[in-house]
Amino acid sequence: MSSITSFNESLVSHQTFVLIGIPGMQEKNSWVAFPLFVLYALTLLGNITILYAIKIDQSLHEPMYFFLCMLACSDLGLSISTMPTMLQVYWFDSGEITLDACISQMFFIHLFQWAESGILVAMAYDRFIAIRDPLRYTSLLPNSAIAKLGIAILSRAFCVCFPLPFLIKRLPFCRSNVLSHSYCLHPDTMNLACSGTKVNILYGLVIVMSTLGLDVVIILISYILILKTVLSIASHQERLKALNTCVSHICAILIFYVPMIGVSVVHRFGKHLSPIVHMLMANIYIAVPPLLNPVVYSVKTQQIRQRIYKMFSLKKTRG
Prior knowledge:
The chain has about 325 residues and is mainly α.
């Protein structure tokens, strides 16, 4: 009898999933809707402003700011990938999503996350070159090299994410179809499968170790070399000036990796915690980094701050 039941279950596979907002308090979703909409609006405004400021100011056409453009594009892509379902869940209280739409969203979320990790590595290399050899900085990182780096970063992210849709598509979903968040992620979707997911788990582990793990190691090595170079500078004032150019990048690293580690820890060791904690961590993990990156670079980078100030003061004058 049990074999017949399992056989029948294997023939049934959910083709839709249900995304959730505030666990157990769906009637309170509307409380989050407006703040979430404002957050997304500010995210789009901030990143588009960064891109526009760099585009119109020739003095900002340097490697550091080109990499910042890549970071802003990655943040925009991540926000646009998650915005529709998150607003749909919280604003319209409608969490249903088809399997194919869920897989597509999952692909793009992971694509932009892996790309952002690669961009942060490239920015660490950029800071090392700028501090070690400032006189030849622009010649060592010409536009052609930056373009090749950008293509390499995107290609790596695409290759890493390409198998995910196929790994998920092959799984039958005959248990619950309720996901843990208001967007689709590979681990969350995989956990609802009613067949073996060893291949998915192994692939996820290998990818995390060989990409995110490697990226973190490269960033750490870059900053060890940066500190070594800074300590060789005789002038104390010049040391502080050199280190100050890294502050924005260090903040971007923390903004990206700390929520990611936090979500992983909560998922692995925080099963006893309230579902609301999981919901908050998941939303912070996906929504806060794209919001804070343009704020950090606008506040901590004088050239960006001055350009944005000129843009808005010029509009006021014309008005």
